[in-house]
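I hope you will forgive my troubling you with a question about protein structure. The full record is reproduced below for your convenience:

——
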Amino acid sequence: MAMKTFPLLNNFNRTGVTGEFTTSTGQSYEDFLSQTLGGAIGLNWLQFLNIQPNSSIPSQISSNPSIDPIAGGLGTAWADNIPWYWHTTQPNNLSQGIPDPDSPSRIILPNGKKYEPAIFIDDQLTRSRGVGDSLLNFSDYPGGPIFPDETILNFSTFLVAEFPNKEYDTLGGFTWTARVDQEPDKTYTDILSLEKGAMFNAGYADLVSAFGDGGYTKVLRLPTYQYSRNLSPGAVHNFDIAGLPVNSGNYLAWTNNQLPANPTGQPDTRLGIENSGGFPFYHRYLYARDNDDGGPYEDNKGSGLRGRVNSNGTVRLKVSGSEDHDFDGKVYKDSICVKRSGGSGGGGCVKYRDIEGPHSESGKYDLLVKLYETNFPDSDSSVFKSFFKVKSFSSASLLSDLPASDELQAESSQKAAGKSERVPEPTLTLGLLALGAGGILVKLTCYKDE
């Protein structure tokens, strides 16, 4: 995905972010959804806006952060009641509208709202395409007189796939910041930053669930990594992911043992996290070092943990049988106390642990890891059941910020940014999402408007 800051062609006082999502597979839009994304019904963007200071928040915006655009639209702009950035429905009273004298392509609706056909999803998609062509466009030029002078707009923008039954999952995202400055007769907007690695959290999921017509549910269908393994008694499996950007933040890791080839739900796994030195990861308040039955699937003996990428850009995980608390493949009997004899200590005892034997768990399972996500969805919903309906991916990931690692094969390239006379030299180039198993190439490039 090529992303850049760019001046608005009809108003050079405002700078925005434009870009495109593309693949290296040459698939049509429909084939990409059904074959690579396992039955998705659409792609779109999901954008959250946090306004600073609070005194700059327009009265129409009821929460901060909020989904951008808000339901119904901000100011005179029309928007639908679906949380996605590009609209998927049109105004009911569109036929009663009249052309806008200031912009013939724009329609003024009976209630005074203005509808811009270019913001409809069909105008932003390329369905039949060749290799390297854009599949989904993005553009946003924030600002306008609705914001007071020196307002800071912080955006988190995610590429999302929508599935049947109003379910969705993220494929990755980026953050960017704009500043709005007001002059007596003009509005200026400058892009201050553009960075990869937007973090999706439970608060965002709640905003989506409550938005507009409501009912959209976050699911875990598109892991960054997916490993398939077969556990045997006494075995411990190690998973090392390297090359993540420093300060990559949170991730989710979980095991799934209810595979089509393994309907018994075995093995009963234990999942552990290690730090960069290979020692058990421990955080006093936020994270556990290991987990037995905390996976996200109902009626499942899988494990699940929230983790944070190590300081050296690695994720280190272990999977063993549920009774193997030390991840050495062994099961121990209860400790016994053997009383000391003699000495000046006045007795006391030494504790010993007898080995009972290797753990007995065996069977096929998947280990799944999703980067840039902080919370498992609500386990009381049908979120987790839906994953089993998705065709399992044969390699490590769909999308990631990672170079080649273990089962990943990653590539990189960049699509031309546009006409040379309108595009300055790049001041910042960022790899947003690398090429994963589905052959999805995503690239982020920031151009500074001079």
The first helix runs from residue 29 to 36. The chain is about 5% helix and 40% strand.
